[in-house]
Write a structure and sequence with these properties.
Shape of chain A: elongated
Helix content of chain A: 25-40%
Structural class of chain A: alpha/beta
Radius of gyration of chain B: 24 Å
Strand order of the largest sheet of chain B: 1-2-6-5-4-3-7-8-9
Number of strands of chain B: 12
Structural class of chain B: alpha/beta
Oligomer: heterodimer
Strand order of the largest sheet of chain A: 11-14-17-10-18
Largest sheet of chain B: 9 strands, mixed
Distance between the termini of chain A: 73 Å
Chain lengths: ~500, ~375
C-alpha cells in the first residue's frame, strides 16, 4: 500500500526533483501531507479528493499520508496535485503500479478532474530524467522544448488513467511552432524623425551592448527611441534562447505557441515596481524579477528619477556581474540577469532643464531630483545623452531615416568583431584586456586626458568610454586603433552624465 | 564684559533678540530706544511695547542666548548692532536697515569704496556666467567692491571673477541663510575665500532652524541698500533678481542690465529692463562710467581706477584647424545649440561633429556644457 511518484518543484529558475511518497494504512480515514509543503500544496488535499471523485475513480477510505521527499526543503506551487493524485490511486489499487514504471508527473488539478498548466513547466521538465513525463495538455508544447518526445499531455484525470491502462488514446499535442519569425521585431527605427544623435546612440547601444541613459524634456522621443532598441539586437542564440525561455517559464509569463523566446526580451516595469518585483524573490520558490526577465534583452526604466533610490541602487551589482544572488534565511538562489539597461528621465522636475538658462525649478527641487540617481549608478551608463525636442521641419517631412533592417546589419557586424575578441559584445571586454583591444592614437589619449583633468570622468568612466570608442571604431570598420574621431564621439555620447552630476550638490 | 562665546554683553543680547525669528522691522523696533539687555528683559517679562500680544515672550529664554552665542563663537561670527561702532555705514541711512547684522570676515572693506551689486538667475547660460565672471573681475581690478548673493549661477560666477585679481578690491557676500549653515560643495570653497578676502554678511541669526523664503527677500532688499549701482547680468521674466531691482529703484539706486539674446529665456528679464530704459552694460567700462557719475563729488569714497581699454588685449582671432572644424564653427553662434542641432546644421556625421567640436574647444573657439555648444562669449 505504498507508492512513490517522481515529480519536481520550482526553485528560482531551476526545477528540483521531488519524490511524492504515498502511504495508505488502516485506521480512521484521514489525509495528511508532510515534508514542508506551502499553503498551495496543503490546499491540494481538497482539490485532489474532488478531482478523483469527479473522475469516477475510487477514493481509498483509509488513512492517507503523503510525504514530499527530500522532506527538509520547502516546496511550493500547485504542480504536485497530479503526482499526489496518482500516488493515491496507485497506493489504493485503482491503478496498477506497473503502468507507472519510469514515469514522472507535473500538473495542477481542477475540481472536475481537468489538468491545468503550471508556471515553470520548462525548468520542471528539464529537471526530470525519466522515460515518460506526463504534463497538462495545455503545457505540453512548452514542455516539449526541453522534454522532446518523452512528454505526454493529458487533458483530464479520467483520460490519463485510461491511457495509462492502455484503454484509451493519449491527447494530441500541438506541434511546436517554429521560432517566432523575424518580422515581429517591434516598431521600426525609420519612424523616428530627426534625433540624429539619439538614433546613433541607440545603434551604438545595440552594437556594443552599452547601457544607455536618455535625458530630455517631455516629448523629446525618449520612449520612442528606447522601444526600438530591442529590434536592433541580434536574435538570441539557441543556448541563450533556452536560458531565457526557462526564466520566462519559471516566472509564469506566457510563452507564445510553445516556441522558444527567440528575440531579446523587452521589459519596461512601471516606476511603482517594488524592490522584489525588480530583482526577484518573494514567493516560496523565489520568483525571477524584472531584471532576470530582461536577461539577454533590454530593461527599460522610464522616468528613472521616479523609481525609489534603493530599488535603483540594487541594480548595481547585477549590472556588474550579470547575475543576481538572492539570499534568504531558508533558501538562496542565483538568477541570471545580464541585461542592457536603458533609462529615460527628465533633466529636472520642470522638464526644461536641459536647455541652458530655461529651467524654472528651485534649487532645492533640482538638488532633490539630482539625488534620486546615485553617482555610482550614473557612472554605469556608458552612453548618456541629453535630447532636445525634435526640429519641426524634421517632424513634418524631412528626409526618411534609415530603417531598423539597415542598422541591424551594422550591429551584426560589430557583434561578430566582438566575438572574435572572445566576448559577446564590446561592453563585456574585461578591463585587463582593454590595452590589447582598444589601443589609442595620441590624439585620442589627449582628448581623454583633457576630460579627466577637467574632473568629468572617473576611472570606471574611463574604461567605459574606451569600450564605447571600440564599438564606434567597429561600426566605422576603422581598424584596431582608436582615433581621435571615435574618442571624441564616445565622449560626446556621454555628455549628459556630467550635466546630471553637476546638478547634484556634492 | 566678555562671556564664553567671545561676545560682549550687548552683542549677546542683540544676537538673542535677532534669534527670536521676528521680521527685520520688528527686530529693529525691539532695539529702538532700548539697550539690548533691557530690550531682552522687557521681552522676557512681556512688557515690551513692540510686543503687545506677548508673541515673543515664550521664546525669550536664557538657553537661546547661550545657543546663539555658542554658534557665533564656533563659527567666528561677529555681531553688528545698528548705530554702534562696526555697523556698516552704508546701511545706516537706509529706512529698512537691519537692527542686528551677523558677519564673518571684515565688513569694513565696504567703507570708502564704491560698491556694485551683481544679481542674476540661478539657471544661467554659459554666456551669462562668463559675462558675470568678466564683470566681477574687471570691477575688482578697478577697486570696486563686488557684492553678490552666493546663489548658484550668476552670483557665484561674479564672485569667482572678483576673486581672480590679487590686488583688487575684496568682494562682499550677503546671504539669506544663517552664517552657520553649511554651504554645499563648490559654494563652501567660494564662501570661505570671500570671507578671507572680504566679508560675508547675513541678517539671519546663527542656530536658527532652516531658512524661510522671506529671508531671501529681506536679503535682496539689503543688497539694494548697500549698492551704488546694481547690475543685472541675466534674469528671467519674473526672476527673484527683480526684487533687488525694485528695492534699488525705490531707493534711487542706479540699475544696469546686460542685454542678451532675444531667444534666450534667461535674458527675458534683462531685456525687459532695457526696454524700460535701464542703462545697458556691454563691458566693465560701461559699469565703471556710471559708478564714476554716482560717486562724483562724494569725498568719502575713493573712485575706481579705470583700467586701460580692453580692446587691445583681446586675443587675435584663432583659426579653425581644418575645413571640417571650420564648417562646425560656422554652425555655432552665441546661443547654446544641442549636439543634434549642430549635426543638422552642418550635415556632417556625429563622429565628425564631435571631433571638430573637441578640436575647436582645444583652441577656445567653442565651449560646451552638458551637450550644448556655443561660441565663447569673448
Amino acid at each position: 500500500m505504498l507508492a512513490s511518484i517522481p515529480s519536481a518543484t520550482l526553485h528560482g529558475v531551476d526545477g528540483r526533483p521531488v519524490a511524492v511518497e504515498v502511504h495508505i494504512s488502516g485506521g480512521l480515514p484521514g489525509f495528511t501531507v508532510v515534508g514542508l509543503p506551502d499553503a498551495a500544496i496543503r490546499e491540494s488535499r481538497d482539490r485532489v479528493r474532488a478531482a478523483v471523485a469527479s473522475s469516477g475513480l475510487e477514493w481509498p477510505r483509509h488513512r492517507i499520508t503523503v510525504n514530499l521527499a527530500p522532506s527538509g526543503t520547502r516546496k511550493g506551487g500547485s504542480g504536485l496535485d497530479l503526482p499526489i493524485a496518482m500516488g493515491i490511486l496507485v497506493a489504493g489499487g485503482a491503478v496498477p503500479s506497473n503502468v507507472l514504471q519510469d514515469t514522472a508527473f507535473v500538473g495542477e488539478l481542477g475540481l472536475d478532474g481537468s489538468l491545468r498548466p503550471v508556471p515553470g513547466i520548462v525548468p520542471l521538465v528539464a529537471a526530470l530524467r525519466f522515460g515518460r513525463i506526463i504534463v497538462p495538455a495545455a503545457s505540453a508544447a512548452d514542455a516539449r522544448l526541453v522534454g522532446g518526445h518523452l512528454v505526454r499531455g493529458a487533458a483530464n484525470l479520467r483520460e490519463l488513467v485510461a491511457a495509462l491502462r492502455g484503454a484509451g488514446p493519449w491527447s494530441n499535442v500541438a506541434p511546436v511552432v517554429s521560432d517566432r519569425d523575424i518580422s515581429s521585431i517591434g516598431p521600426d527605427l525609420a519612424d523616428v524623425r530627426g534625433q540624429a544623435v539619439g538614433r546613433r546612440a541607440v545603434e551604438v547601444a545595440a552594437a556594443g551592448g552599452h547601457h544607455l541613459l536618455l535625458v530630455g524634456p517631455p516629448g523629446s522621443g525618449k520612449t520612442m527611441l528606447a522601444t526600438r532598441l530591442p529590434g536592433l539586437l541580434p536574435p538570441l542564440s539557441q543556448r541563450e534562447a533556452l536560458e531565457v525561455t526557462r526564466i520566462h517559464s519559471a516566472a509564469g509569463t506566457s510563452l507564445v505557441g510553445g516556441a522558444l523566446v527567440a528575440r531579446p526580451p523587452f521589459r519596461a516595469p512601471h516606476h511603482s515596481a517594488t524592490q522584489v518585483a525588480l530583482v526577484g524573490g518573494g514567493t516560496a520558490w523565489l520568483r525571477p524579477g524584472e531584471i532576470s526577465l530582461a536577461h539577454g534583452g533590454v530593461l527599460f526604466l522610464d522616468e528613472l528619477g521616479e523609481f525609489p533610490a534603493v530599488a535603483l541602487d540594487m541594480l548595481r551589482q547585477p549590472l556588474e556581474e550579470g547575475v543576481v544572488r538572492i539570499r534568504r534565511a531558508r533558501r538562496s538562489v542565483d538568477l541570471p540577469a545580464r541585461f542592457l539597461l536603458v533609462g529615460a528621465m527628465n533633466p529636472c522636475p520642470c522638464g526644461e532643464g536641459s536647455v541652458p538658462g530655461s529651467c524654472r525649478c528651485t534649487e532645492a527641487a533640482r538638488a532633490r531630483y539630482g539625488r534620486r540617481l546615485s553617482a555610482p549608478l550614473l557612472d554605469r551608463f556608458d552612453l548618456a545623452l541629453s535630447l532636445g525636442r525634435p526640429d519641426i521641419e524634421d517632424l513634418l517631412g524631412g528626409p526618411p531615416a534609415e530603417s531598423s533592417a539597415v542598422v541591424t546589419e551594422r550591429v551584426r557586424f560589430v557583434r561578430l568583431m566582438a566575438a572574435k575578441r572572445g566576448v559577446r559584445c564590446n561592453a563585456e571586454i574585461p578591463s585587463p584586456s582593454l590595452e590589447e583591444f582598444t589601443p589609442m592614437s595620441g590624439e585620442a589619449a589627449t582628448l581623454l586626458e583633457r576630460r579627466m583633468r577637467a574632473g568629468a570622468l572617473s576611472a570606471r568612466g574611463l574604461h567605459r568610454i574606451r569600450r564605447v570608442a571600440r564599438t564606434l571604431a567597429d561600426l566605422d570598420d576603422a581598424g584596431p586603433l582608436i582615433g581621435g574621431r571615435q574618442m571624441a564621439e564616445a565622449l560626446h555620447l556621454r555628455d549628459a552624465s556630467c550635466a546630471l552630476s553637476s546638478a547634484r550638490p556634492s | 564684559m566678555t562671556t564664553t562665546g567671545g561676545l560682549t554683553h550687548d552683542e549677546r543680547y542683540a544676537a538673542g533678540i535677532a534669534a527670536l525669528g521676528a521680521g527685520p522691522v520688528r527686530t529693529r523696533r525691539f532695539l529702538d530706544g532700548y539697550e539690548p539687555a533691557a530690550a531682552w528683559s522687557a521681552l522676557a517679562n512681556g512688557r515690551h511695547h513692540a510686543d503687545p500680544d506677548h508673541a515673543y515672550q515664550s521664546k525669550a529664554l536664557p538657553p537661546l542666548l547661550d545657543k546663539v552665542e555658542a554658534a557665533c563663537g564656533e563659527n567666528g561670527i561677529a555681531v553688528l548692532i545698528y548705530g554702534r561702532p562696526g555697523y556698516p555705514p552704508a546701511l545706516l541711512s537706509d529706512h529698512e536697515a537691519p537692527g542686528v547684522l551677523f558677519s564673518v570676515g571684515d565688513p569694513t572693506v565696504m567703507d570708502r569704496r564704491a560698491r556694485v551689486v551683481m544679481v542674476g538667475t540661478r539657471s544661467a547660460t554659459p554666456y551669462g556666467l562668463s559675462i558675470a565672471a568678466e564683470l566681477g573681475r574687471g570691477l575688482a581690478e578697478a577697486g570696486v567692491v563686488v557684492v553678490a548673493g552666493m546663489a548658484r549661477g550668476i552670483a557665484t560666477a561674479a564672485h569667482a571673477g572678483a576673486l581672480v585679481p590679487a590686488a583688487g578690491a575684496p568682494p562682499v557676500a550677503i546671504i539669506g541663510s544663517a552664517l552657520d549653515t553649511a554651504p554645499h560643495g563648490s559654494e563652501a570653497h567660494l564662501r570661505r575665500a570671500v570671507a578671507e578676502r572680504g566679508a560675508v554678511l547675513s541678517e539671519r541669526a546663527p542656530a536658527s532652524a532652516g531658512t524661510p523664503v522671506w529671508c531671501f527677500a529681506v536679503r535682496n532688499r539689503m543688497m539694494a541698500a548697500v549698492a551704488d549701482v546694481v547690475v543685472v547680468v541675466e534674469c528671467h521674466r519674473q526672476g527673484a533678481s527683480l526684487q533687488t531691482v525694485k528695492a534699488a529703484v525705490d531707493r534711487g539706486v542706479a540699475v544696469m542690465a546686460v542685454p542678451g539674446s532675444v531667444r534666450s529665456s534667461a535674458s527675458t528679464g534683462c531685456n525687459a529692463l532695457l526696454v524700460d530704459g535701464v542703462a545697458p552694460v556691454r563691458d566693465v567700462h560701461d559699469v565703471l562710467a556710471l559708478v564714476e557719475l554716482v560717486i562724483a563729488g562724494r569725498s568719502d569714497i575713493t573712485g575706481p581706477r579705470l583700467p586701460a581699454p580692453r580692446a587691445s588685449d583681446r586675443p587675435t582671432e584663432a583659426r579653425a584647424p581644418n575645413p571640417l572644424a571650420e564648417r562646425a564653427l560656422q554652425a555655432l553662434d552665441h546661443d547654446p545649440a544641442s549636439l543634434d542641432t549642430v549635426v543638422r546644421r552642418t550635415g556632417m556625421t556625429l563622429a565628425d561633429v564631435a571631433h571638430a567640436l573637441e578640436q575647436l574647444a582645444a583652441v577656445d573657439l567653442a565651449v560646451g556644457a552638458g551637450g550644448w555648444w556655443s561660441r565663447p562669449s569673448r
